[in-house]
User: Fold Thioredoxin family protein from Aquirufa avitistagni.
Amino acid sequence: MTRTLPIIGFLCTLALSSFGQNPSFKTWEAPEAIFQRAAKEKKPILLEAFLPTCSHCFAYDKTLRSPVIKNYLDKNFLAYQLDLSKRENGLFLRKNKIYIPSTPSFIILSPEGKIWHIEIMGEELNSVPGILKTLQLATDPKERDAAKLARYQAGDRQPDLLLSTAFYTRVTMDTTQNIAIVNDYAKSEATENYGSELNFLLIQKAMLDSDNPIFSYFIKNLPAYYAKYDTAMVKQMAENVLMSSIFSSRARTYSPARIQSIKNDLTLLGIPAKQIAMRFIVLEVLIDLDQAKTMQAIERINQFYEGKPIPEKEKAFWCKQLTRKGDATSPCPLP
Assistant:
């Protein structure tokens, strides 16, 4: 037993040290310097987002060392590896509105720094031909993700295109566009296909709002999904979509019926009533205040705490919300 922790530490150190400088990639620079260089050389940028502890990343690193890959990258890209274990790299992605759900992923930017394509690299692509095909697609003016989104915006509603752009707008954090695309896809899908594996993947990887017939089918048929897939994963998928629906600015426009529907769905997932109330209290109070229903908001807060003293920091938060539209010197209406 005493040897377990040293062995785990050794394995972690080994994994981290395995990612030495890959000769197919350039040495990392400050992002500003990379963008300036790309604009000057008129070359797109490839960022391989990876984690040093990711076994799939380690397998890809071996393939990416191929001389064929190196020659292709040298000729066509400014290629860098982006270590997501480093805080500054996570901040870089957030600043550029890029969400990476799994590693390794390829992020391809235009010479001007615009997002052209993001590909989550699965095991099926881990070969020299698979990587080259991905890179060629990412730079194709007609087939890269950004081009497909432009086609959608111009009125193209082909189901395959809708799926591609749904995933793209998810990883580029374009929530408004994502919801519209997923809704358009649902309109194109036959009702009898709602339960398909492809739509299961759509819910898991791209869906950000529960107000969608495919999600409604999913939540109403949870036992069938539990029988087919891992139960914990199914519950987590459903919860992710529901929480994404309420933790957004658009939630402040929801009707009482929509809010109750989301609460009911969370109940179906086995989430206790107290936890559900905790997730909704801020939203519901803010909606009350948006509608100038201050007394209703106060009553809602008091009911939430069930007559118990409100913790000091939480009370300060509520007092600030309750008095924000009045005189700043007004006393807090909470006991």
